[in-house]
Amino acid sequence: MKAKLPPSSRMPAVLQTIGWWVRPIAYTERLRARLGTPFTLRLAGQPPFVVLTDPADIRTLLTADPTVLHPGEGARLLEPIVGPNSVILLDEGRHMEQRKLMLPAFHGDRMQRLTGLMEELTERELDSWPLDTPVELHPRLQMLTLEIILRAVFGLDEGPRLDRLRERLPQILTFGDSPISLIPQAQRLLSGRGRFGRFERDRADVDRELFALIDERRQEGSERDDVLAMLLSATHGDGSPMSDEEIRDELVTALVAGHETTASSLGFAFEQLARSPEVQERLASDGDDYLDATINEVLRRRPVLTIPEPRLVVREIEIGGRTYQPGVVLTAGAYLVHHDPAIYPDPYAFRPERFLARKPGTYTWLPFGGGRRRCLGASFALLEMRIVLRAAAERFVVEAAGPRQRSRRRMITITPGDGARVRLTRRASGPIAATESAAAAATQPAAA
Ligand code: HEM
After folding, report:
1. Per the record's keyword annotation, is Membrane included, yes or no (predicted)?
2. What counts of helices (H) and strands (E) characterise the chain?
3. Which residue from 115, 258, 320, 400 has the highest number of Cβ atoms inside 10 Å of its Cβ?
4. Per-residue pLDDT tens over the stretch 228-281
5. Is residue 205 part of a domain?
């Protein structure tokens, strides 16, 4: 049994950190080519970071006992934004308890009830996309995914509170872009001052709005389909309801975990489709199976979290013939697994057909991580992607508006380098064209 860590590059930790941060995809591919797998990343100020890529090892990782690995501890940096009750930050019993409270709200069947709302918001957004000129879709997709979360998860109706939160929430999210946000000691020192002070004031404004919303909705007690309604009716094991603070923290968690991830995944979908006219043609005419296969392939080629939540070892664990001691961080190299030619032949080709013949494998398709930490919003995100891509395929032909740019890092996710810049033209058979021709026909004098 080997106790030594897998091989690592001899480059200083600072350079490894820069490589990992600036070129998240190319750098890990280079390490795999040089060192084989698993390998160890040495990141400045962080414990050794072991990247696993063997599906059997990943299975052991994702199914390990919760007392052995702590993903929550590694996510502590998010606490100023998501709050101390967030499911993302917790481990062991407390994690399971919050997760159980949230699961029914995000269940696939429950999500179906949000379809109408998501379709309406999508149609409205797509109506505003300009035709026949280059357009960056990523910022527009960010607006759409934000709107969908605010309406379907926070349960906000149109009105001044929605307007205020739409403006304020992204401000507290961008705090995570600042290097200060990565250092908890700096956060404490800067409390009340400068950029952190402004963040604290914005967060206080947001919290006031959210607590008022939760209070009103408790009073109303009406039946609704949004996630907030489900959280209001969820109960702990002892029958007590979730506290206002718990609900606030889980709503903001859904926003942090689900807004940028879905926007970037959709951005990558458009980036890929712009270069695959034959996939677009099939999407416009084929059924849901092909649409789902396309989404699975987009998430394989570009898992926006190139690794799921890193797991901190707190009790010795054996994986793949090696023993890992407490203090080491283990993670599944999702991007690398997705581009292993032994698992996905011709892995750099964008080919939805590969998912027509077989369903995504639990330990070989990892855009949503896995095990008891698997993304809670996976059904929500997949439904949203289905609705947006179906509506877009019916309306538009998407073309590239320039050479492909390499993916960029935004906080912990990757995003299309050129903001998903494409050119849209109207699909001849699309619903708009159909509506327009119907309108045109209506204004034509009837044929004699
Ligand atoms: C395409 C979009 C999305 C992707 C690619 C994605 C990906 C992920 C990944 C990789 C994890 C970590 C899983 C692990 O470590 O095993 C995660 C966790 C999580 N995601 Fe998502 N996510 C997406 C959308 C969403 C949405 C829309 C929501 C909520 C509305 C959401 C809520 C969460 C939550 C709450 C967790 C933490 C689960 C836990 O710790 O138990 N995600 N997501």
Report:
1. no
2. 20, 12
3. 258
4. 999 999 999 999 999 999 999 999 999 999 999 999 999 999 999 999 999 999
5. no
- Residue 446 in marked binding region: no
22: in domain? yes
Look at ligand 1, atom 11, and give the residue with the nearest C-alpha: 375
Count, residues in the chain:
448
Write out residues with Cβ below 6 Å of ligand 1. 71, 87-88, 99, 153, 253-254, 257-258, 261-262, 265, 304-305, 308-309, 367-370, 373-377, 380-381
Task: Look up the CATH number of the domain holding residue 111.
Answer: 1.10.630.10
Domain limits for position 75: 13-155+224-443
Worst-scoring range by mean pLDDT, 2-6, 39-43, 307-311, 436-440? 436-440
Distance CA 381, CA 360 (A): 16
Q: How many domains does the chain have?
A: 1
Q: What is the amino acid identity at position 432?
A: I
Considering the domain boundaries, does residue 296 fall inside one? yes
Is residue 146 in some structural domain? yes
C-alpha 348/C-alpha 25 separation (Å) is 13
CA distance 412 to 212: 31
Give the pLDDT confidence of 78-89 residue by residue, as tens digits: 888 999 999 999
* pLDDT, greater one: 446 or 192: 192
